Amino acid sequence: MHFKPDPRYLHDCTTDIIKTTAVKHLSEYQSNSTTILPTMLPVPSGVMSRRAWASSLIVFLTFLGLCSCRSQRPPLRNVDPPFKQSFNISQVSGSAVSYGPNSSVPDVGKFYRTLTLHNEILYVGGKSHLFSTTENLEMREEVSVPSTSIFKDMGCEFCGGNYIRIIQPLPDGSLLECGTNSLVPYCQKRSTKNLSSVGERQTFDGHNVVPSLPHQNSSWLLLGDSETTNQIFVGSYLVNSFGVLEEPAILRAVLREPLGRIDVQLKTKDSPHTVLNGPQFVGDPIEYQDKIFFFFREFASEHMNSGRIVYSRVSMVCKDEMGGREYTTLTEKHFVTFVKARLECSLPGKYPYYYNEIQDVYRSTVDPNVVYAVFATRSPGVASSAVCAYRLNEIEDLFWESNFLAQKKDKELWLEYFEDVNNEELFSPRQATCPNTRAYTDEECRKILALGQLVYRKAQNSFPYENQGPSFHRRRNRISPLLVTHGERFTQIVVDEGVVDSVDVMFIGTENGTVLKAYLSSDGSEARIVEEISLNSEGLKAPVLTMVKSEASQAVFVGTDIGVYKVPFQHCQDYTTCQSCLDSRDPYCRWTGNSCSSGRTDGLQDLENGSSDLCPDNKDDKILFRTLPKSQSRAVNFPNHPVNLHLVAEAPRGRNLRPVGVDCSPCASLPFTHFRSACDRREFLVMHIDGSSAGTDDCFCSTVLEMDGGVRASANFSLTADSSDPVHASKRDLEELATFDVEMAQYKYELQEWKSIVAKSCELRDLQVCPLGGCSNP
């Protein structure tokens, strides 16, 4: 997958070259078309068989490919798992998990692929269930929606359940719910106030507007045109023949209120060779001015002469077109303005590596002209993924200005077309102008269908770029993807835009059941992964099926086959030290004196280097000892001889300063009691350690303290065993000893007071009392 010198570049480089170059030249030669031979390869002589020459050509091109692979330069940023910051969802503050109604443990088979956020209520559709939750995934309502199809007991793979695939809020405040219903899909309305309140169920004859299989990839967009009529644009398969999907189409339908009935108006013509060839639609259709854009991947008809391969596509139809004319190639029931382009996301170089299989798209809410897309390699095989971005105005210009790529007859080469044999335009006006489609002649309709479905130029990754000149001619060099990873397959993407300092943050779902957080660099040229959050529970993991962003909750809601998860945009509070806060390189987080905070423009942050050198070298990240336990002797032969030790320590407030233990070697651990207090921005810990149970050996002891952030400190002391015989003092001896202790304490106090008075009167900073032998310093 990578290119030399990194050995991981070896994945498909030569394979692609052989498939796309050698096979292409070989097929051209065998079909007697003109081929320009490399100067290094001799032209075959008459005695050399065509087969031998073809074999030599393949060997040469393979060698050429290996050499060229070494010259390819990698993208700006390659990131391989495991990632530096990796957490389980259970470790992230502000996260939440729901395993669905009446379930408190993870289990597979729930298929929570449909998430809809409406009025800050999350609606979840799964296998035979629909429920709603709060922003913290607390259950609100739940209804069972079993299959009513006659096929439910036939034992086929997807006949046993009703998979909810569409939950669409409607202008009247209700929900439109659509499910697979064991191969007989339906739609019906539900009340948002009471999910049990349901309207009449509609099934479809001939044209399945909604998915009929749980894993079927489809696109759906509702345009609220009026209170009584709403347009729906759908990319799906219209026919399900006992689990086999047939007749892929892009269609426009009308949702008629108040019953919620769906009537199909226009659809693309069923012509796999030129229109749609096994498409897998991703994301939602996008409304852009007077057009609707669809994103999908399909088998590339233009590549069929050289082998079967999948390409990513972007297509458009005009929102308000009227269809063709009756009794023409494209009738009044067909889209005439449909046109598509190859969507390119590739590693640049002499022989680019293409990420051909798009998985999801996300349209920017800050700049509606920008669309982010994730791509992945096909499974099975080496996993690799990329993120690219596109501008809708450039794609529109492509449909306006590019020539077409078409094949006039089967088994002929696909060629670039703009004019016909009479040097006249194939048809006019172009589809992208959204013309009056009823004005096309039947001859023009035939040309549109046969030669005008695919444009010649590709839609390239275009983020960022220098905004100079017309968009169609703006760049000639390919731009690297924003992000490339190896060992992961991306499945979903959402973007939180305009974070502090206008940083855009991407949340990317993966096939491994993780969510990656990555932010765009300051110049927008690449994305950098901040952290990986695993959704795995009790050893179970499932691919991310869907993701929904919530600005109000400042979180991303994620659906898998196991559960629904709330992944917060940030969990800065989990970084409890300045070093951990800066090392996270999280664009949401800044160190603001004594905490890692979000939503601030002040404080410390270093996204480029994550340098903790910016952190102040002060007591904020240290445990300070105010009183240390002193080494003592204990009388082994004196029963119940008390040995008391004390320790006082402090730390920044809120850091949960706590004792870990008092370990003594070779003695047993010592018992202790403790209490905590706080004052201003500091918290204090006071410990009382009982050393009387240390045994009969000399012990070296260590008191270990800890605070949040993994910061530890220890205080050491020793306990010496005194095995001498006990001294039996009389009552008078004890009284004299007590009197001596009192007099000594009074002497020390009066001496200190005298030293203070003398030092103050003489304006001395320090005062020593010399012993009888004199002071060592003058």
Automatic annotation (TrEMBL):
<dbReference type="Pfam" id="PF01403">
    <property type="entry name" value="Sema"/>
</dbReference>
<dbReference type="InterPro" id="IPR001627">
    <property type="entry name" value="Semap_dom"/>
</dbReference>
<dbReference type="GO" id="GO:0030335">
    <property type="term" value="P:positive regulation of cell migration"/>
</dbReference>
<dbReference type="GO" id="GO:0071526">
    <property type="term" value="P:semaphorin-plexin signaling pathway"/>
</dbReference>
<dbReference type="GO" id="GO:0007411">
    <property type="term" value="P:axon guidance"/>
</dbReference>
<protein>
    <submittedName>
        <fullName>Semaphorin-1A-like isoform X1</fullName>
    </submittedName>
</protein>
<keyword id="KW-0472">Membrane</keyword>
<dbReference type="GO" id="GO:0005886">
    <property type="term" value="C:plasma membrane"/>
</dbReference>
<dbReference type="InterPro" id="IPR027231">
    <property type="entry name" value="Semaphorin"/>
</dbReference>
<keyword id="KW-1015">Disulfide bond</keyword>
<dbReference type="GO" id="GO:0045499">
    <property type="term" value="F:chemorepellent activity"/>
</dbReference>
<feature type="domain" description="Sema">
    <location>
        <begin position="84"/>
        <end position="569"/>
    </location>
</feature>
<dbReference type="Pfam" id="PF01437">
    <property type="entry name" value="PSI"/>
</dbReference>
<dbReference type="InterPro" id="IPR016201">
    <property type="entry name" value="PSI"/>
</dbReference>
<dbReference type="GO" id="GO:0030215">
    <property type="term" value="F:semaphorin receptor binding"/>
</dbReference>
<dbReference type="InterPro" id="IPR036352">
    <property type="entry name" value="Semap_dom_sf"/>
</dbReference>
<dbReference type="InterPro" id="IPR015943">
    <property type="entry name" value="WD40/YVTN_repeat-like_dom_sf"/>
</dbReference>
<dbReference type="InterPro" id="IPR002165">
    <property type="entry name" value="Plexin_repeat"/>
</dbReference>
<keyword id="KW-0325">Glycoprotein</keyword>
